[in-house]
Amino acid sequence: MIVANYIGAILLVAIGFYAMMTNPNIIRIVVGMNIVDYGLNLMIVSVGFNQGGTAPIYTLGELTSGMYFVDPIPQALTLTSIVIGACVTAMSIALCIKMYSEYGTLDARQIRRLHG
Amino acid sequence: MSIDINTILMYLLYALVFPGLLFSSVFGLWLAGVDRKVVARMQKRIGPPIMQPTYDFFKLLGKETIIPANAATTTFMLAPYVGLVSLVVLALFIPVGGFQAFGGMADIVVVLYLLTIPSLSIIFGGSASGNPFAGVGVSRSMVAIMAYELPLILVLLAVSKAVSGNGMLTFSLEGITTYQKLNGSLLFDWRLLPAAVAMLLVIPCEVGSHPFDVGEAETEICEGPLVEYSGAPLAVFKLSHAIKMFVMTALFAALFLGGIATGMLWLDIVIALLICTVVTIICMSFLHAITARLKVEQVFKFFWTVVSGLALVSLILVWIGI
Amino acid sequence: MSMQYYQHFPVLSIMILFLGAFLVALFHKSRFMRTFITSVAVIGSFAMMIALIKPVMLNGEIITYWLGGRVPDGGYAIGIALEVDAVSLFFGILVSLAVLLSGLYSFRYTKQDDARDKFFTLYLMLAGGVMGIVLSGDLFNIYVMLEVMTFAAVALTAYRSWNPNAREAAFKYLVVGSIGSSSVLLGIALIYANCHTLNLAQISALAMSKMNPSMLLAFALLFVGFGTKAFMVPFHPIAADAHAAAPSSVSVLISGVFTKTGVYGIIRVCYFLFRTMGMPAVQTGVVLIGSVSMFLCVTMALNQHDFKRLLAFHSISQIGYILTSLGLCTALGIAGGLYHAINHTLFKGLLFLTAGAVLYSTGTTKLEKLGGLAKKMPQTAALFMIGAFSISGVPPFNGFVSKWMIYQATYEKAMETGSIGYALVTVLAVVTSVLTLASFVKVGQSVFFGEMPIEYQNVKETPASMLVPMWIMAGLCLATGLLPNLMFKYLLGPATGAVLNSPAYIDSAMGAGYAASQMPDMSLMADPVIVFAGAWKPLSWLLLFVIILAAVALASLMSKKRTSESGAVIDSKHDTFFGGEENTFSQVASGDLFWGFKHNMRKYLGFMSNAHNGITNEYVTWGVVDLAIIIVYCFIFI
How many domains would you assign to chain A? Predict the structure, then answer.
């Protein structure tokens, strides 16, 4: 059901933000960012979804009137967004590893040389 | 642009003689003399002759200029002249008795910003000398600038609002004088009275006169930014100080007493100069004689609470249009 | 429609940067090839932007370039468009100029770094991403470019392996910045759900008639998203961290260019996509955010002990000016905001480059450790002073003109609406300007003047290859301040007109008459004629200044009987006049300057200093709370 998708997407975003706000472990902050990403991806795919639509792949002969598709653009957008999300995750994990070796901790409360 | 030779000569005359370099120097030094004399009389001293600042100026010109080993030479030597010149330019923009040499070239916001250049030249010049006294002086002068800028902009906005009517906003000094010529001086508008008082308090702080002369306190930090200056550059700073007195009082006259018009230009100018003198006596000599120097944090507090409050009252009164 | 040769320039100016990035990666071994490819890319990109001035700015054309020739079909924009109107070109010029100058500076500047081969790849990716944003006519492309840009910027922030804070700064930047990216993406999804298109022009045409709660949510999300990229309050701490940690030439891009994409995005969202800027509630909101950014960040800057971190806070403070001015929705306000945008890129770029030069020569940017450098680096000191005067709005430098316009615009708005709130914004702007001046006096006093620490006795002047871009920037700071008329004719006038005239933008992409057929209200959002309330003629003023300076100089030459032999024996009379302790130990520390101010404001400053505690979670919380507040604000007032 499409409404469930929207609710799920919003919930995922909310959970992700909550994790980023409250979890002092930097790895979990990254996980939180990922959850937000998944929520957004779910949202975008759902936007293009048509109940009963076919896949947007066709040859002219198969076209009949009354046929309709799932919107392909949001799927392409989701794909892009997933790729970007993966890059961001890789980058942030790399930074986490470096920070762990520099600070000896993953606690965001102790990684605060820059303040004030 | 087609400008014939006569116009150029006239502008040169404005810039270099009246009301530019020569006149503002002479009149400024005279004002400084009057100030010293009045203070002395109020303290029951005889005081120096009125021409004393002028003599001092020429005496200093003849003295040797010592550049301290620590100083950043270019900035140290250039600062006084830049400050002086910007003050003279400022004198050209402010109408004196309705006479404005270069009207339509600057408005009150420009004046507000040009006013910071002389102070900045003192600050950077002092800073460039590398002296710890100068460091303290720089810090204090800057705090003084921060202190008076807030009330000054409030005063300017209040005046501008009072002058602008029917949704037309004007920031131009010419517009402000013209309005006063038609509608009477703004000083006699009771809503602007607090602003005028605030302005009278801003003037000594901007000029750096007692009790707000925290930056140049001779007795504590040996004139602060000026401590390493000697000879001609010091003379130029002293001259700038004198011209600043003229410029600030003339600004007061233009903002609040611009409505005095006798029909004769020379008489207007004489009246304006008289006003300058009176304002100098009221807000500089008088305050100087009766008060002790404030501490720097007191200056800041005083200007951001009392003086700004006065100016804000005016702005609100003008705004709600009683 | 016959294609003019210059219609390919937008796409080429983006592609040349990306192509350069890949080629640099390919030929990374040779220093010459890296330098050569980067120079060609940045110069080419800048030249193409300049070449577009004539058709776009002067002839008023709007260049629409459909990738793959896929023009709109049946009233639907199927292809991906690049659309360059005066606003895009304005930001394009600004971006490519900063990229060019900062790139030239980097060749020498990165000499002290390891992994130099990767620097220019990332640098060009960042530049290409920014160019892609400002020239694109497609919302999703903007998002992708935004991510490319952010990604490159984060990598460059973490780039300096010897800077112990770099990774921390990059991580915070990435995490807090991801709130903005997520908001933009969600906003785009919601817009697509309502309008079924990603083309900016078509969305602009359709959005007004399709206004519903989800579109309103999309507006709020996009606003916050782009606001994050502009580092508006409360996203400012990450900017401060990132600027301070990144190499200076990258700080120039982050501060002068990266933030401008945020400003650009806000212009597109508020003036084009949703046309909401006409609403008083939106104006109030934007001006409020701008003013808070302006004031809060300048007071934070006064608290700083690090040259670059101080500059970083100023950069957000200046963005606050720009947002305030753009939020007024008057021609003067928009022109002032855009003017300040280009000025900010120039003077802040210059200041970051001088900070970089100080770092290059001395190895530190800590204000407490430095001092007296003006004697060793006179040109750098002069450049710093030009930058400092420009940012503090000292006439005749450029910061003054734009601030002058912003004061007028805010006060005019106050007169127009009769609300004293806008008048207080004017006052706040002036006070901010003074505080800006104060903090640069502090930098001047503690870095370039005062007593020089013994370890810097052998410091050398900045190398010429770094000085040249700085002098160009300084020259431009003066030129843009002195020639406002030319600025209006070639850049600001057309750009202001374009900001107010979104129907023209729509028609250029979708075909003439499309805007009229879809939009219920096509009227301009404000009168595009720029009227000044006061007068300021910088050229004649400067002429006057020079004449009098000449007279004074002449007089002082004539009065001087005998110049004291320069370079004469330095004896005790040239010593510093001071008693007691050694001069070195008696200097006022940078933190103690302005004690009179700090003492009075100690509660506020202490509170602010404690609030910026550097914990990532708290910054995320600020961001999410801000997002929530703006969404609620939009739903209540719009």
Answer: 1
